[in-house]
Amino acid sequence: MVRGMSLRHALLGLLSERPASGYDLLKRFETSLANVWPATQSQMYGELTKLAAAGLISVSAEGPRGRKEYTLTDEGLAELRHWLTETAPQRNPRSDTLLRVFFLGVLPREQAGAYLTGLMETSAKEYEDLRALERSVDWGDDRLSVYGRIALEYGLRLNEMKREWAAWAAERLG
Amino acid sequence: MVRGMSLRHALLGLLSERPASGYDLLKRFETSLANVWPATQSQMYGELTKLAAAGLISVSAEGPRGRKEYTLTDEGLAELRHWLTETAPQRNPRSDTLLRVFFLGVLPREQAGAYLTGLMETSAKEYEDLRALERSVDWGDDRLSVYGRIALEYGLRLNEMKREWAAWAAERLG
DNA sequence: CAGACCATGTAAGGTGTTACATGATTAT
DNA sequence: ATAATCATGTAACACCTTACATGGTCTG
């Protein structure tokens, strides 16, 4: 467990709410965690096998079509808590969007401006998508509601910031 | 060239300003691009070899200690322009910081609050670091100055947003 | 001449993506 | 029946990190 490996912790986190199969978890990734930690089917099944081998989760039931339901073990919960409290979040995730900005100077100013206005538009659109998501969710006072709402607020503020920044930058280019 | 591969483009981008050796590029990554696209020494030398084999850069001079100076070729510049204009930036980079937020509910509320106030502090500190960087740079009107300043502004606004968001979230928990 | 810095490379292993592959069960 | 969905897995390949390895050149 050297670095990163957050897929592991994402799986442990989802299983901390309730037991689930790989297929269930895949669906929940697609809906709730897609914006924060996308994962593919391939990767998930492999990771679940490793987590079970390491004793952090266990097969608690088997169903039709070879379905295996996994449950978080005490060791798994301990590892999840450890990750949350004792390990530092990554400082700066890589950003190819921002990397491009560094090199916009190789383009004619007009095309550089088009890149920035394109960013404005995608930010505005994503903001609206998140607003729609916010309206569609039935927010209760369960764990996922409380913290999911906080994560969603981050997305809203981020996209608002991005749109304003891109507008500022486009104007700055003249 | 299937997906991502932005290290390639970062190298092409830096070489579009002036020729440089692997060692030079490593230093420039450490200073200017560290916050946006960190890269290790190992990875860079390997990537430079591949780029040269693909004809996107070429060895333009050799110096002491086996130093090889690379220069961007016409093909390399075309590829850089193509990446800037024809390929879409990644929509959502993974965020382990935000992933943790989803699962803060497994901690006692006090510890969840501590995580959020910790984020406030790191954002505030990074904001100050960037302000210091801003003051230390001699901003001219060359390409890197214009677009580097825009990228830095993004960092400033991002950290301001993060700090406010974390404060809002911590208060929301009560 | 010793230490700092310049300069490049290989190897092993983890993580992530895409494509391929297989088959059971349920609903129409 | 047949199509959609449920359900899991393997293989190949790209990317990234860490550690290991080697040696030349310059400065005090």
From TrEMBL, chains A, B:
This is Helix-turn-helix transcriptional regulator. It comes from Streptomyces polychromogenes. The lineage of its organism: Bacteria, Bacillati, Actinomycetota, Actinomycetes, Kitasatosporales. It holds the Pfam family PadR. Residues 11-81 form the Transcription regulator PadR N-terminal domain. Residues 94-173 form the Transcription regulator PadR C-terminal domain.
